[in-house]
Design a protein that fits this description.
InterPro entries: PDZ, PDZ_sf, Peptidase_M4/M1_CTD_sf, Peptidase_M61, Peptidase_M61_catalytic, Peptidase_M61_N. The protein has 603 residues and is an alpha+beta fold. The chain contains 16 helices and 28 strands. Strand 22 and strand 23 form a beta hairpin. Helix 3 runs parallel beside helix 4. It is globular, with a radius of gyration of 27 Å. Bound molecules: zinc ion.
Length: 603
């Protein structure tokens, strides 16, 4: 229990119909030269400047019931006029909350959700101090069934402390902690399970028919496996999956002892579902991903994030390790914990490989560069993104896979990427010392050397080249000792135009035009709407079928609208690229191969 903190906040879902949270921040001993307040420009885990201050609608300051002048310093900072020593200063402001994502805040008559980075102004000079947050209930009888779900701590012994899952007083040891526990309020579904002795909870907001028992059983297996991978005790004493269920949505954001998730209703399991669906595997993969971040990025961090600077971009070339390795382990944890079958895992892995092969940007940008430029490229993708960007998630996951397979093969199964993760946990996660920008190379080399004398330098070098280079990884070669066959084939028959259509089944609108493809060579552009191929009408639904009947090298006349002008193009069709990867168990799998595979996949 902290002493009465000198900083305290209140937040109230004051006007759900207007999507307005009323927030106040009281400072018991404000800076005598004028207290400065600042709202973050970004939220950790989502590497883009979002300028949350743009959602502050009105703001005023007062002291002893009298208004205090307030001056705007820059886009997200304010300074209140000096007040008499020993007098408390209170800032009151309205926050517009209508962003249905895991990154900001959302409020209507059905529920409220917020990340602290969207609603709590930091008090300059006091961000290291403990603070109270009073989460106030909504008004009106329709809203009296609301509960609160968050991993913010409750001040034990304080008469105003919130009851379990209730409105009232919560606290955080510092500002960094305050904004790392998202809060959900509403009439949600709530379930509990245990993993390695640690209580876990899942909260589902929105209409759903989820089979909670099945979900909890599967999540318990995945969480237990991850805790055991890094070693007990778990780094948290409780964990919360906050889930917003919608018709069509997907997203997740990691926090120190919880995660905020957005999922499609159809991806949740339902009573009587029987066989696992692809959508459910996607949801389990998302939960597994965010949970793995509890170690990898929330505690094992790049030095560039220790501490975070929430006012501007925090550059690191390491997101391939923090997002890529996490992406590798998210699905791997599902198969290793027995929640999905080996064949399903190989299909997921093949999909990641296909995703990388389908972006020409992989030949131009390294994952180190992609990490560094996440702020302006990966998070701000436009129609040219596939031609210019490599995903540090997908290619980072393949680098993790390649490392894991090489470590296992070189050491006859004695060493693996698991050892790398455990070493990172011991040296960085448990000590709080950030990982240096070149810190991974030597650490991987150290694990490799322990597995096979002389392998350390080679693997360390290999990793540096893979991370800083743009060549395709020889994955087929790495998979061979595990008795897994790699095959890349064309996704479609016939001929290719080298385009991706915009979502929807109506007009054939080009979302992307791939570098060097038939469409780009004849002058078609993203945004163009194809209307006819050789004089025959074409739609989004018919394009693939029309191309399937053609041959590479054939010429076709294409009519398309650009803006509102009809244009004609002559395209020479190309062969469809062999960019769909299929992984399968080889025909002849020797005993050593089988042993390596069992170590890797658990079966
Ligand atoms: Zn992630």
């Amino acid at each position: 229990m902290p002493h009465q903190p000198r900083v305290s906040y209140t937040i109230s879902p004051a006007r759900p119909e207007a999507h307005i949270f009323d927030v106040s921040c009281t400072v018991a001993d404000p800076d005598p030269s004028g207290q400065v307040f600042r709202l973050p420009a970004w939220i950790p885990g989502s590497y883009m400047i979002r300028e949350f201050a743009r959602n502050i609608v009105t703001l005023k300051a007062e002291c002893d019931g009298r208004p205090v002048g307030i001056e705007k310093l820059d886009k997200h900072s304010w300074r209140a006029a000096p007040v008499a020593r020993g007098r408390a200063l209170t800032l009151s402001y309205e926050v517009y909350a209508w962003d249905l994502s895991v990154r900001a805040a959302h409020l209507d008559a059905t529920h409220g959700f917020f990340n602290g980075t969207s609603v709590f102004l930091a008090v300059e000079g006091k961000t290291g101090e403990p603070c109270y947050v009073d989460i106030l209930p909504p008004a009106g009888p329709a809203l009296q069934t609301w509960k609160v779900a968050t991993t913010l701590k409750r001040p034990a012994g304080d008469p105003l402390a919130a009851p379990a899952m209730g409105f009232g007083l919560y606290y955080a040891d510092n500002y960094d902690e305050l904004v790392d526990h998202p809060v959900e309020m509403g009439s949600f579904t709530h379930a509990r399970f245990e993993a390695a002795g640690v209580p876990h909870e899942i909260v589902l907001t929105g209409r759903h028919d989820c089979d909670l028992e099945r979900l909890c059983t599967d999540l318990a297996s995945v969480c237990t496996w991850q805790i055991e991978l890094f070693g007990t005790p778990a780094p948290v004493d409780r964990y919360l999956f906050l889930t917003m269920v919608v018709g069509d949505g997907y997203g997740g954001l990691e926090h120190r002892s919880s995660t905020a998730l957005l999922t499609s209703r159809g991806d949740l399991p339902y009573a009587g579902m029987g066989e696992q669906t692809e959508g459910y595997r996607t949801f389990l993969g998302l939960c597994s991903h965010e949970y793995f971040h509890t170690w990898n990025v929330k505690r094992i961090k790049p030095a560039a994030f220790t501490p975070y600077d929430l006012a501007s971009e925090n550059y690191t070339r390491l997101l391939w390790a923090f997002e890529g390795f996490t992406s590798y382990y998210d699905d791997l944890a599902l198969v290793r914990s027995g929640v999905i079958a080996v064949e399903d895992y190989l299909a997921l892995l093949g999909k990641t490989m296909s995703n990388v092969l389908r972006s020409g940007g992989r030949l131009k940008q390294s994952v180190a560069e992609s990490s560094f430029d996440a702020w302006i490229k990966y998070y701000r993708q436009d129609e040219n993104a596939p031609n210019a960007i490599v995903s540090y998630y997908a290619k980072g996951a393949l680098i993790a896979l390649a490392l894991d397979l090489q470590l296992r093969a070189a050491s006859a199964g004695r060493k693996s990427l698991d050892d790398v993760m455990r070493l990172l946990w011991q040296r960085h996660g448990q000590t709080g010392e950030g990982v240096a920008e070149d810190g991974l190379f030597a650490l991987v080399g150290e694990v490799a050397e322990a597995g096979l004398k002389g392998a350390g330098r080679r693997l360390s070098r290999w990793l540096k080249d893979a991370v800083e280079g743009t060549e395709d990884l020889p994955l087929d070669e790495f998979l061979r000792p595990f008795g897994i066959e790699y095959r890349a084939e064309a996704a479609a028959k016939g001929a290719s135009l080298g385009v991706k259509l915009a979502a929807g089944n109506g007009e054939a609108k080009l979302a992307n035009v791939f570098d060097g493809g038939a469409a780009q060579r004849c002058g078609l552009s993203a945004g163009d709407v194809l209307v006819a191929l050789d004089g025959l009408k074409v739609t989004a639904a018919s394009l693939d079928g029309q191309l399937a009947r053609r041959k590479p090298g054939e010429q076709v006349t294409i009519h398309a609208f650009r803006r509102d002008e009809l244009m004609q193009f002559t395209a020479e069709l190309a062969a469809p690229p062999a960019d769909t990867v299929k992984l399968a168990s080889g025909k002849r799998v020797s005993a050593p191969m089988r042993a390596l595979r069992k170590g890797w996949l658990g079966a």
